[in-house]
Amino acid sequence: xxxxxxxxxxxxxxxxxxxxxxxxxxxxxxTFDKGEFAGFVGPSGSGKTTILNILGxxxxxxxxxxxxxxxxxxxxxxxxxxLLRKEHIGFIFQSFNLLPVYTVFENVxxxxxxxxxxxxxxxxxxxxALEWVxxxxxxxxxxxxxxxxxxxxxxxxxxxxxxxxxVLADEPTANLDAENAHIIMQTMQKLNEELKTTFIFxxxxxxxxxxxKRKIHLQDGRVSKDEAMETKTVQS
Amino acid sequence: MILTGKLAFKNLIRSGLKTWLNxxxxxxxFVLIIFYNGMIDxxxxxxxxxxxxxxxxxxxxxxxxxxxxxxxxxxxxHGILPESYRKNLTPVLVWQGTIYPQGRMMPVLIKGIAxxxxxxxxxxxxxxxxxSEYPVLLGRKMAESAGxxxxxxxLLRWRDKNGTFDAVEVTVAGIFxxxxxxxxxGQLWMSLKTLQEMTGLHDEAxxxxxxxxxxxxxxxxxxxxxxxxxxxPVTDLINAxxxxxxxxxxxxxxxxLLVIFDTQAFAIFRRQKEIGTHIAMGMTKRxxxxxxxxxxxxYSIFATVLGGLYGTPLFIYLAKNGxxxxxxxxxxxIIIAPTIYSVYSVAxxxxxxxxxxxxxxxxxxxxxxxxxxxxxxxxxxxxxx
Lengths: 236, 385
Description:
The complex is a heterodimer of chains A (236) and B (385). Chain A is α/β, with parallel strands linked by helices and 236 residues long. Chain A is built from 7 helices and 10 strands. Chain A has one domain (36-52, 77-228): Rossmann fold, CATH 3.40.50. The longest helix of chain A is centred in the C-terminal third of the chain and has 18 residues, at 178-195.
């Protein structure tokens, strides 16, 4: 039996909007197994990013229960929530969110610094992560010197360097051209297969959707379809 | 804490020129505070030393009736101190009189001092070697205001203890140079013995100046005023000037701190995505606030380094060569040497450094506390503020 890494039960998320409320997520029930390569797909405003933020413990549900790595994110203290992110979750953002004054190496190293790893451990892990994404020669460069594709690969290296159980990727290819989008997706696919890291995407990009093994369609905050895809590796 | 410190340090160093410009603005306050306080401390030290060497010695044993601040009773305070108590003390008798230089009338305070004394720097030995019948000593400023030179005769008139007027022609046997206006302006120094004979106050004195070896004891009719009490007005006056001038450098410090506040407040706005990223990677908001606060506080450390670089040669120069003042002390009514040698103590530097670090930390904390209210999701998009 597969290990359930994420359990979502009756999830509702509402935002105050003036004097009324906007319901971004309506009664979502889902589970994710360890090692899944899944994605929330749907148009803008369907609730993809909202659900990803809740899974990443950056936001909390209004109603319902979201259990990530055995921890109910709606009841976590700020410290416990930070610890969950620090130890188990890696993030990849649409706009990369790299720290501009740090080198590629330092950007990737940051999450290990937060985990208080030794210098030797950090060097080994960062070198390995950069090799994974094919940027070992760019360790000394700074983000402004990188292309969009390279920046996103650094962001992937930063997300996976601590070997998290879950990587949450919000529109990871939105700022990339087709070629780079495929390179990025193939890199993540490889990581998923070799490291058994669970990848969950939020996307409306067809190029990303081709790679997903499970597509969860969101429509106006509801799951309209949850489909398992063919499990073959996609080649660009 | 070490991690946030390391990250803050890295952020600042990597920010390059902006960091150093901010640190430079703050370093001006650092250097000015040390410069000014060092000058005041130097002045205070010199003034205290001069006052001890010329006037106070190691304390005054005063006749109970003697009040140097009361011109109406100044002649009432005198008496005979028993011989057994006079060890390590230099007697001074104070009396009022008038001199008539070039026919002008000029009130003076006549001070009779033991001619063989070594307790204060008044060159009373000159009175012993002079061939004049009534030799007197004047300070340079007094001599200038009276228009008298060494060897000049001048008529001195006084009233003896019974109130009878008398007069003699005294001779200026010597003119001494001092920074202490209280032994110079309006004063005429002569042999104690001579003044006692002139006034009829045989063996009497108004006060005694103690030397280092003097041990105070209770003597009826006499009050011992210790050195610190005598020096208090000097220190108080200098400190009053110190606090007054503090406004100037505190303003400069405020400008430096405003620069940090501005930089940090702007950094919070500009670096929202970075803040969101740090939170997403597992930092708590408190840790992010700490990192930004430490960043602000580090400006003060950089300012100290910068200030040290250009301030140290200046301070060494001033400590060696001093600062010359065009206005002499007598016109200001305070003890001030023509050249003040600044004194820069470790305590002064440490205190200034701490003032800078604490104020920069507080200012930075003020600017960064907005992070506590930030929504990490909005911060990641750069829209939290």
